[in-house]
Specification:
Helix content: 40-55%
Radius of gyration: 18 Å
Shape: globular
């Protein structure tokens, strides 16, 4: 189905804990595309800020981060199973960036223009050859507004909190449901209202509300959208 198809950019945006990365990874596997976890990149910078004591009463000391940001290197490596792990200055931090402390501060870090501009430039460099899938908050509006396929994922906040809570508990973390739910609500507000590249749906994005949608059904919808895009590119006059 996907052999000899044109290489495109697929942008997946949406709210936290909507399963953006799960969908992106499966699409990348089926299409043989490169998956770039942009959220992990912001989490890595957030971890760097925590490790270097750049928060004061939960407020990022941006003036102290700015002169050293150029020395923060974020990348990815694949393990033997083909799973991507996030690197911070050459160190695998995949596990550390998923904890609640990073989750509670990542929106604060990602709201700053100097952070976003650094990572957006890196993401755009990664996408020069196309054949990639990226998920985040501003992929279809800022990073790749020219992306051939744009998906926007959403779901009820309580359902998203339940999913995130289950994931954290299964990974051995000690958290309460209320703590996770409040984090979801807070991140939604911060993501939607930040001055730099706020979370919003691109005008030409396909909305996928997965509150009651099973993963395989959502995947099939996304694949059908991509399939139709391939057809329109290959046969522009039809």
């Amino acid at each position: 189905m996907y052999k000899n198809q044109p290489k495109i950019i697929i942008a997946i945006d949406g709210y936290s804990s909507c399963g953006k990365s799960t969908l992106a990874k499966e699409l990348a596997r089926q299409l043989k595309y490169i998956y770039i976890d942009t959220g992990a990149m912001y989490r890595a910078v957030t971890l760097y800020c925590i490790q270097n004591d750049l928060f004061k009463q939960n407020v990022l000391k941006i003036a102290e981060l700015e002169p050293i940001l150029e020395h923060v290197a974020v990348g990815f490596e694949l393990d033997l199973q083909g799973k991507a792990h996030t690197l911070l200055n050459g160190i695998n931090v995949e596990e550390q960036i998923r904890n609640m402390e990073v989750s509670s501060r990542v929106s604060e870090v990602s709201s700053h223009a100097i952070v976003r501009r650094k990572l957006v430039a890196l993401q755009q460099k990664m996408g020069e050859q196309k054949g990639i899938i990226l998920d985040g908050r501003d992929i279809g509006t800022v990073v790749f507004p020219e992306a051939e396929v744009k998906l926007f994922l959403t779901a009820d906040p309580e359902v998203r909190a339940q999913r995130r809570y289950k994931e954290l508990i299964e990974n051995g973390q000690t958290v309460s449901f209320d703590e996770v739910y409040q984090n979801i609500v807070q991140r939604d507000f911060q993501d939607e209202n930040r001055a730099e590249s706020p979370l919003k749906k691109a005008s030409d994005a396909h909305v996928l509300d997965n509150t009651y949608l099973e993963k395989h059904d959502q995947l099939n919808v996304a694949l059908e959208i991509i399939k139709n895009t391939f057809k329109s590119i290959s046969n522009p006059n039809k």
